[in-house]
Amino acid sequence: DLQICQHRAPTCCTKKMEESYQAAVRRERTQSIQALNFELKYMIVGHITAFQEAFESLLRFAENRTSSLFETAYRPMAKEAAEPVKELFTDISLYILGAETTVESAVLRFFDSLFPLVYSRLINPGITDLSDDYTECLRLTRQDINPFGHYSKNMVTELSKSLWASRMLSQALSLGIEVINTTEHAALTKECSRALVKMQYCPHCQGLTLIRPCVGYCLNVMRGCLASVSELDAQWREFISTLEYLTNEMAASHDLEIALSGIWNSINEAILHAQLNGPQLSATVDKVCGQPKQQEGNLSSASIVPVKEVTETQTFTMAHTSLNNKRREFINYMKRSRTFYASIAERLCDGDLVMRDSSTCWNGEDVV
């Protein structure tokens, strides 16, 4: 009653043993593909972590630099500006990780929160009553009167270019892991598991426990079993090319590090622009939002902190070099894996599974 290991000679197998062999080849096939995938998956996961750590390091640096701008140049509003600054960099981090948000919405939300502070602490430092309604009116007015000139739009443009490539790379790496995980658990067809049993275990039914399959025979069986997986070859090669393109984009004109290091300067220029246009802004705001309560008497100019450029002793050099090295090392490794799916059958038939450099091997029917 044997279904797979039928042979003219006497056999020591039963139908139940055949079923056990089918379970064994399924398990072994999954384990052997997992072993092949391990190094590739390990490299991708390692680089996802390394890239993320480098991004976070650069974001922290840029956030600290921006916070120090307010503490040194715009002290009257530094405490209240801390939360909008934190939100801006959190939004940027979420965007890189693939969240459903945009750079434009993050930056414009930041400037919406910033305008009431600039207006009440720098342009009209005598305002005492900043009610929720008045603050909300200032936020909405910001969108119409554009107090920060072209600087807010420029910041959106610069960050969008550089962060887009980082976001795409982050998503592409996650997709790579997903593809590898899916191939590990691809279901074996009935024909495939029977062919694997015939190749690996049917010799045992004849007492030939040490004989191993012939190389050509193994390749034919594995190619048949892995036809659906090897079809990924063209897409995998395209995937590697896309990774290469994205890493080049990040390293070239859309440089993430330069864009992040320039955030504080864009904000500084935007605030300066608003201050220079203070009288016109005040006239427009008074018409739209009404006049808020002012302190009695004239405010002395001494209480207005003069704007000065923030001097920054630290640099992005270390994080920049680290990120560039990681990109280069990663893409070189990934380029070597271009043929990963095209050569999967060859690699599964390598090593101990087949008989090499010997005069005898199993061809599926007999020893040859």
UniProtKB/TrEMBL annotation:
<keyword id="KW-0336">GPI-anchor</keyword>
<dbReference type="InterPro" id="IPR001863">
    <property type="entry name" value="Glypican"/>
</dbReference>
<keyword id="KW-0449">Lipoprotein</keyword>
<dbReference type="InterPro" id="IPR019803">
    <property type="entry name" value="Glypican_CS"/>
</dbReference>
<keyword id="KW-0472">Membrane</keyword>
<dbReference type="GO" id="GO:0016477">
    <property type="term" value="P:cell migration"/>
</dbReference>
<protein>
    <submittedName>
        <fullName>GPC5 protein</fullName>
    </submittedName>
</protein>
<keyword id="KW-1003">Cell membrane</keyword>
<comment type="function">
    <text>Cell surface proteoglycan.</text>
</comment>
<dbReference type="GO" id="GO:0098552">
    <property type="term" value="C:side of membrane"/>
</dbReference>
<keyword id="KW-0325">Glycoprotein</keyword>
<dbReference type="GO" id="GO:0005576">
    <property type="term" value="C:extracellular region"/>
</dbReference>
<dbReference type="GO" id="GO:0009986">
    <property type="term" value="C:cell surface"/>
</dbReference>
<dbReference type="GO" id="GO:1905475">
    <property type="term" value="P:regulation of protein localization to membrane"/>
</dbReference>
<dbReference type="GO" id="GO:0090263">
    <property type="term" value="P:positive regulation of canonical Wnt signaling pathway"/>
</dbReference>
<comment type="similarity">
    <text>Belongs to the glypican family.</text>
</comment>
<keyword id="KW-0357">Heparan sulfate</keyword>
<dbReference type="Pfam" id="PF01153">
    <property type="entry name" value="Glypican"/>
</dbReference>
<dbReference type="GO" id="GO:0005886">
    <property type="term" value="C:plasma membrane"/>
</dbReference>
<keyword id="KW-0732">Signal</keyword>
<keyword id="KW-0654">Proteoglycan</keyword>
